[in-house]
Every structure is written in C-alpha cells, then in structure tokens.
Design goal:
alpha/beta; 5-stranded parallel beta sheet; two-stranded antiparallel ribbon; 9 strands
Length: 205
C-alpha cells in the first residue's frame, strides 16, 4: 500500500460511540468497534441488513458483545428505527455510519439537529457530484515534476489517465472490499477541477 494513502474515516476520541451499519457497511466499522472496546469507551452498534443470513459477522458480534449489538434484519424488523436512536442529540456521542446511500441520507437527516461534527459517514461509491464549476480547459503545474498538464472537461484531473500520470484520486469504498477512504497524492496540492470535491462522507474536520 502506498505511504501516501490517508484514512478519511478514522475513529476520533469520544466518550461514547454509536455505530450504524447497513449490509456490508459493517466492514469498516468492525475495527472501530474493537478499538472503542480497547479504549474502554461506551458504544453501541445498530446493524441492519436485508435478511439475517445476509448479515456478515452478526453471530460473532452478538456473541462477543451481547446487548451492545442490535441486529435488525429488514425482513424481520423493517427499516432501522433511526428516530429512536437519533431523535435526541447526545453531545458526548459520535455517530459513525457506513451503508447504502439511502441509509446514509436518512442518518444525515436524523443527525441534522445534533452538534456539529458529530456524524461521520463512509460511502460505497462517491457521492453524486454537483454541476461543474467551470467548463473551459486550464493548465495545472505539477510541482514535483515541473510538468504542466492541460485539463479538459472530458478528462478530469482526478483520473489516473496516461495523459496526466497524476496519481491524484479519491478511492471510494466498494462492497466486499475493505473501505476506509484513501486519497493518493501525486502533487503537493490537490487539484480541484470540473466539480471535483473533497470526500463528502466526513462531516467536520
């Protein structure tokens, strides 16, 4: 793994944690659960999936952590009851969520009245981008190599194309793979072009 990869979904210090997983979104939350346990922090895990059989690690989690783990298969319990879990803001609690886009949107809406920087999310795929901020070509100077690259609307600077050879990209999580977000830097500063944005999953610094 490149030394330039950076984790955009770290576990930050808190007295309490609420982990919310949907389907394979349990993957990046597993080490966070273990870390919170090692730190002696209070935590709970709300874990939903289509069926109990489709929910990886639920037996191991419930066996190891008992009542801290709340399993909610959709075919048995319906959608996750976010109103019950997130209805009352708790300033001493950080919320971590990974799962499909509808779950993330619902959690973000439920946490809208919580203190700033409470919620951190991880996406399977990059969030839908807004309209481009510009549509004209422009030049980018790569300080490490001294090269100048012309960026056009059809070739975004975040692509690892042979034309640019700039290893500057955002790697979204994908189902079935470990998915802490990683940013790979090929230049000293990030290139923002044609609507490219910082990973939107992290709410706060």
């Amino acid at each position: 793994m490149s030394a330039d990869r950076r984790n955009h979904f770290p576990l930050t210090p808190s007295e309490r944690y609420l982990f919310i997983a949907g389907g394979v979104g349990i993957t990046p939350l597993l080490p966070m659960v273990h870390q919170a346990e090692l730190l002696g922090a209070e935590w709970q895990l709300l874990y939903g999936g289509r069926t109990r059989a489709s929910m990886a690690f639920y037996k191991e989690l419930t066996a190891a952590h008992g009542e801290r783990v709340h399993i909610a298969p959709q075919d048995e319990a319906g959608l996750l009851d976010l109103a019950s879990w997130l209805g009352t803001p708790r300033p001493d609690t950080k919320v971590y969520c990974c799962g499909p886009a509808p779950l993330l949107a619902a959690v973000e809406a439920a946490c809208a009245h919580w203190p700033p920087y409470t919620l951190r999310t991880e996406r399977f795929t990059a969030a839908e981008q807004s309209a481009p901020v510009r549509d004209l070509p422009f030049d980018v100077e790569l300080r490490r190599t001294g090269r100048t690259v012309t960026v056009t609307p059809d070739v975004p600077s975040t692509s690892n194309s042979p034309r640019t050879r700039t290893d500057t990209s955002t790697t979204p999580c994908a189902p079935g793979r470990p998915c802490p977000s990683a940013s790979i830097r090929g230049a000293e500063s990030r290139i923002r072009a044609f609507g490219w944005q910082e990973p939107s999953g992290q709410v706060g610094p």
